[in-house]
Amino acid sequence: MKLILIFSALFGASLCLETFVGHQVLRIKTRNEEEVKKLQLLESLEHLALDFWINPSTPDLPVDVRIPANSVQAVKAFLESHGIEYSILIEDLQVVLDKEKEDMACSQRDRSSDSFNYGTYHTLDSIYAELDHLASEYGHIVSKLQIGVSYEKRPLYVLKFSTGGSNRPAIWIDAGIHSREWVTQATAIWIAKKIASDYGKSSSITSLLLLTVSNPDGYVFTHTTNRMWRKTRSKNQGSPCVGVDPNRNWDAGFGGPGASSNPCSDSYRGPSANSEVEVKSVVNFIKNHGNIQAFLTLHSYSQLLMYPYGYKCTEPADYAELDALGRAAASSIQSLYGTTFTVGSICTTIYQASGGSIDWSYDYGIKYSFAFELRDTGRYGFLLPASQIIPTAEETWLGLKKIMEHVRDNPY
Amino acid sequence: MAGLRGGNPPRQDPKGHVSHSSLSSASFSMLSDQVSPLIQRPKTGPRKEMLVGKHRRRDGNLQQGSIPDSGHKYYLQFTTEDYKSGENAGSCLATVLYPKTKSPPVVSIKCTHTKDQKQIQEEDNRLYQKIRHQTKPIIGNNIPDSYGNIEPALEPAWALAVAGSSYIMWEKSTENLGYFMAQVTSVKQWIRKDDFIEFDYTVLLHEIPTQEIISCHMRLTWLPGHPLKVKYFCASENQGLEDGSGMESGSAAGILHERGANF
């Protein structure tokens, strides 16, 4: 750091930029009008290049003056010869300025999260640390809530973004319910940063609830043991196989087609709806909040933007509006990097699947329920290169914003 | 998700140009990349033929008609892209008939290609030379790795795995089951005395809509101008196993059996 300062000082000097090396700031105490007049005479001597911070006007007030290095001796001699009292406020102005710059840079580093690399995949601990960082850096708009614990007792954290009262109409966003879909957790933490830094500047954001890692046990497992793990890590009674597909476990057509009853299956629905604490915690939170206007969930991969239903292939009542909004959001997404998303209901776009989260949220009364499948379309699939995290997050954000704006403009 | 199964994949090119034929088969068997079928439950009971509507996805276009007592016929129109560069590689028109009798589907396909035979041949040769000029047998694990990285030295092996896997996916997929190649868990090159290159792979296939990760052992042999030879064996459902983290790599002798014709 010091090296940079020295270098820039030299560089600045070489470019004839003003530096304040050797400049002194004196505080002069005048006792009478005569002394004031003498200082005013000094002021008129332009070749001294004196910079009065407080001009000589009345004997009641001290006079502060910055003196360039090569005038210091002359001014001091003048003052002493006239018996005018002074003290040195600043011995070397440049030193003070340098220290100030250093202090600012340091505090800025502490305040900003630029040590967290949003363009790379992180461990759970790293993401959780960043949640804390955001909550403290943007404390006036971000708070971290714990909505429960996972099967293996890891906390489930939701970031709440708002300035208003407790239960203003809010938008819910979750990511990483399927742990192997790494670009979703990565996108979520980027979005957290984006919302925090944009809050107040953009009118589309009102009150937001963001669950960046819905399935922390699974996420840790993908780092430590099996990158392709999808489910929770709950033990299944009477079976050596572990885990339930958390997106077949919601109380929406539970037990119907499109979910497995086999604990060893990657789409195992679980012994009963909401059996998974990761699911139950969200359900409880949403019910207790009472004013969620939109429920948006992030998955990967396939580049799809879907609305209900998955458990049945009939159209939801709000089909027309949801389809139009979905298309508008997909259009926003495409506008950035040309990434195309296919829009439609779950059942008609991919396959029939029961027990899904947005079916539950929709039937619960949250009209604007959408599921995103982010990049890509199969070349890398779950193993999306980190270089695509930020572009994915940026484009997804545009889609989310489009939906949030519509929700803001269409309260119900 | 329309997948395809059959003894005779409709290769445009009987000479088995890898970069080209892998493209066709990859894009064809990975139909979900371009097209996904729209299936609506009939309103009047399960015995009626399924009605399928039009579905557009990018320029993919799928139509289906039901042929009484005969099965479901799909009409597909889709674009293809180079697996490595993402460049547009042409478009295809295809019909796929799934007979009611559950025998392999009948496929007809016609593609236009942005590259001519000569270009394709040159690319095949470049790929071949790249592999041949390695000083040591290629060995690798987890391609791409957890973070999506592919070491440049392992890219040719990955490209061949894509081509070989597309054949496996071609054979395994059905009217209701489709696949993507999720990862190469291991690759080991076997040096041969002749000019053919040979690789032993373990690949992970992502199965839709079951969401299962299927581990397949694959032995692949190739020489430009000759058809790609693929022998494979996929593990069945991981009943009783805790996680499908993939099979051990190593010699596949004794557990492989040849499937399907050469092409």
UniProtKB/TrEMBL annotation, chain A:
Q: Which Pfam families match?
A: Peptidase_M14, Propep_M14
Q: Which InterPro entries match?
A: CARBOXYPEPT_ZN_1, CARBOXYPEPT_ZN_2, CPA_M14_CPD, M14A-like_propep, M14A_act_pep, Peptidase_M14
- Write out the GO MF terms: metallocarboxypeptidase activity; zinc ion binding
Give the location in the cell. Secreted
Q: Where is the active site?
A: E373
What residue stretches are annotated with the Peptidase M14 domain?
Answer: 120-407
Named cofactor requirement(s): Zn(2+)
Signal peptide from the UniProt entry: 1-16
One of the protein's GO biological processes: proteolysis
Query: What's the superkingdom here?
Result: Eukaryota
Query: Which Gene Ontology terms of cellular component type are present?
Result: extracellular space
Keywords (alphabetical) are:
Carboxypeptidase, Disulfide bond, Hydrolase, Metal-binding, Metalloprotease, Protease, Secreted, Signal, Zinc
Which PROSITE patterns does the UniProt record give?
CARBOXYPEPT_ZN_1 (PS00132), CARBOXYPEPT_ZN_2 (PS00133), PEPTIDASE_M14 (PS52035)
Q: Which SUPFAM superfamilies match?
A: Protease propeptides/inhibitors, Zn-dependent exopeptidases
Q: Which family does it belong to?
A: Belongs to the peptidase M14 family.
Q: What is this protein called?
A: Carboxypeptidase A2
